Amino acid sequence: MLRPGDRVVVGLSGGADSVCLLYALHGLKAYRLTLLAAHLNHGIRGKEAARDAEFSRGVAESLGVEFELGEADAPALRKKSRLSLEDAARVLRYEFFENVRKKHGASRIATAHTLDDQAETVLMRLLRGSGTRGLSGIPPVSGEYIVRPLIETGRAAIESFLKSRRIEWIDDSTNLERDYLRNRIRLDLLPALKEYNPKIMETLARTADILRLEEDFISREAGKGFWRVFKREGSELTGNLDKYIRLHSTVRIAVLMRALTETRENLKNVSSIHLSAADAFLTSMTASGESVFPGGSVVVKGHGSFLVTTKDDLAKGFSYVIPSTGIWSFPELEVEIEEAPVKGLEEEREDVVYLDSDSVKFPIEVRSFKPGDRFVPLGMKSRKKVKDFFIDRKVPAFMRLRVPIFLSAGEIIWIGGMRIGERAKVKGKPEKVLKLTLLRPRF
Length: 443
Prior knowledge:
Elements: E1 7-11, H1 16-26, E2 34-41, H2 46-62, E3 66-71, H3 74-81, H4 85-104, E4 108-110, H5 115-128, H6 132-135, E5 141-142, E6 146-147, H7 155-164, H8 181-194, H9 200-229, E7 230-233, E8 236-240, H10 241-246, H11 249-263, H12 272-283, E9 289-292, E10 297-302, E11 305-310, H13 311-314, E12 319-322, E13 326-329, E14 334-341, E15 352-355, E16 364-367, E17 374-375, E18 384-385, H14 386-392, E19 405-408, E20 411-415, E21 419-420, E22 432-440
Parallel strand pairs: 1-2, 1-4, 2-3, 4-6
Antiparallel strand pairs: 5-6, 7-8, 8-11, 9-10, 10-11, 12-16, 13-14, 14-22, 15-22, 16-19, 17-18, 19-20, 20-21
Helix pairs in contact: 1-7, 3-4, 5-8, 5-9, 9-11, 11-12
């Protein structure tokens, strides 16, 4: 967790936990730590917040520890991001700690999470319907920098440590407000549970430790199978349904959770209930449909594949104009268009086609499917609805907006990666043809 000679940013609120942490680390003389006390005013509690900042500065100065004070506006972030006030404050706090760490070249950020915090977190996530990942609680170490030296120490032991050394601390009045779920758990639920199990704090922490080990194993297994199931398509993930179904049910949930993490930043309000419902939908006999998550993520399936994306992106089309030959790169695809001599042409593939130079003129439009689109497929004489063509080719409905359709003079000349139009085929014995190569299709 900590190594001799580490430079450590210590989150200091002025409360008992953080004051204890600073004193405890300061007392580790054998470790030769360089400590930096960091305090953030979240812009929530007015005069009381200013009092906390000055108290924290005094604690740091009394120990000869450098002090960094930051200012933030948690209410503004709450309104902008739709996070709870508690979550907005947490985001800003960790951003501040990280900025201080970079400024001073520190190797660790130490926060004062305790055994009590661990128990409260496990209960809070249990009430919200979290799965193994959520119930594994607060890890002793997060990422490369964050450590929590007091995570196995209870509040009673912390206060005893401070009182025995006549060290003062201050209390946050908001800790007594029952508007917050965490406070209600601390003030009401945990005392009630202690009547059944006086060691409930330790029991919950031990349960979190066990679940963390299990979650680590599940995550490793999910990591092995993730890219066998999925391939990335821009900001979205396309999955092979058969490969997904073959995974163990526990691993499937972890894979689905990772897919959501890969396609969006905030998974707040996504619980094990939502994940289990999406998994049941994907593994059911239902041929097609969708499962929607809180916050706008959606899983849609059809014809043996499924897509993890957002509701907004699901219905998003595209349209671009290509004025000449060359390599053209767009968010949805990359295509190379060039004139090629007929002699020595390689065999056509789904991603490489040759079109008649006299029939195909610039500019060429490439866009997504539109209802009512029709074209004459190669080898046919009559027009066919593109929708019916997709159905024949078993293209899932959710993928149809992702297939690039190339047009010249308003006529479809190529359903990208699938079939050229009859009128665009090479005619006679020309010296040159137009070669189209899909370098990066989005399907």
